[in-house]
Amino acid sequence: MSLDTLRRRLAKPKTSVQLCLLGVIAGLLAAVLIILFRLTITQVQALFLQTQDDFSTLAEYQRVVLPVLGALLIAVFADLTGFKHYRLGIPFVIHRIKHHYGKMPIWNSANQFFGGAMALICGFSVGREGPSVHMGATGASILAERLHLPLNSARTLAGCGVAAGIAASFNTPLAAVIFVMEVVLREYKIHIFVPIMLAAVTGALATQFVFGNDSELALFSITPLNFWHYPYLILCGVILGAIAFSFNQNLMLIIKTFKSVNMFPRLLLAGLIAGFIGYMVPEAMGSGMSAISLAVDSPDNMQLLTTVLIAKLLATLFAIGLGIPGGLIGPVIGLGVIMGTLMSFFAQFITPGLDVSGTYGVLGMAGLLAATLHAPLAALTAVMELTSNPQIIVPAMLVISTAYVTALQVFGNRSIFLQQLDFQGLPYQVSPASEALQKVGIMEEMDENFKLLYSDDKEQIKETLAAVNSQTPLIVYDEENGYRLAEYDLSLMSDQNVGISYIPLQGLSSQATLSDAFDILKDKRSGAVYVYSQKDDKQIMGLLRWDQIRHILTIRNSLL
Description:
Blueprint: H1 3-10, H2 17-45, H3 60-81, H4 89-100, H5 106-121, H6 129-146, H7 151-170, H8 173-184, H9 190-211, H10 230-257, H11 263-280, H12 289-297, H13 302-321, H14 329-347, H15 357-373, H16 376-387, H17 393-410, H18 416-424, H19 432-437, H20 442-445, E1 451-453, H21 458-467, E2 474-478, E3 482-488, E4 500-504, E5 506-509, H22 514-521, E6 528-532, E7 540-545, H23 546-556
Parallel strand pairs: 1-2, 5-6
Antiparallel strand pairs: 2-3, 3-4, 6-7
């Protein structure tokens, strides 16, 4: 199959073998980038840590100096690449997918790789999934750009890269698919679902090959809960929903408070705060995965868990709020596990002698994750995959539902990603019409049966109009007016005179979607655009009229 044939095939909003294979390739590219990212972190940490992500073995002064040094290096690299390239992480990826078909600026990705690795190496309380998602989308973007694929398929491949990034970070391919549909794309369509699913599987398998199939939550012992725990689980869900709202509000408060501060001193301040917290509570350093080991090893040490919870909460809020590159999901998982483990202290009075700390730790993670990110289904799926225990499903559904509804309806909580996008002024919403039309490449609907005339001679144009079929559009071109659509002007026709009207045409690349044509024509609700080859803008490939777009929106919209 030639590339031109492939591009035409991908312009259709349908599941195809070609799109699935490209999804697998995008997942593999994402996995390679993420494997390099994770290996960089583990290899550098191995130089000064006895156990990965365990900073408690370092001397006190080292725990202070390390985050400050990391913040300085992050700031210097960001300055060298230009701070305008510093918008990072999942919120930025959501914006690029919604409004730029997933095309990722390369320097943003470089900042994310270096900055995210440096933040995790130096013990900041951030997650690795933010950089992983960013780099996964970048890998897919590079693939689509190199092959000059239609932008509707490039958007799907960006979703594939995000899914591979999540799957590679947590070894949860199904939860990654749900996360993309629920949080990033915010839609469920079968022709998008299948390639994203294959990309997630590819990302998970590739990272399993390098890092193994271990899961941090597998350390927990899941104990079945009887019916008498359910009223308490509802109360736990309410508490987790309130905490999620408070977490989001305080994070946005820090972001807004330090908005006017330049990036360099802001990052330095983040390093100083992280160093102070690391000096006082070394267990609070690192990603959220380190908190899981603490909850497993010391489930009965209420004082230690409470201290680490408060310290890690502050470390996460200030690290993310002040601009340290890294993800939010990892720390939220760690915080949720600690909260759930603390809640299990009171649950032991319901069933004395039964150790339920592991079960409640997992449920705390699920509830906080669902309420903070507004991703209840992704949180439930992650719990199922990470524990491989079906007995957790019903309690998890109860906690997740209660936490989500409490945060949403009682407190009016919104997804932290959308709040960050609103603050940054990055649009993420598109109209229903544009969203439907983004799924169809312009090559799929353009009229290829047209006549092209390079002349502005009126007599020659009349002769050509008379010679062609009435259903064949005539496109004329001259240096002064550019491309125009020539038609008989019925209002000026008489027995002696035949009038000709001209409709100015704006060009679109063959990579464009129907949404791009809609944006050009929607104000006048009439007219047309011509389609040119992405290789040569003088090579006209077809014509698309407003009536064709209107027909799709009114008749076929439900199919998209």
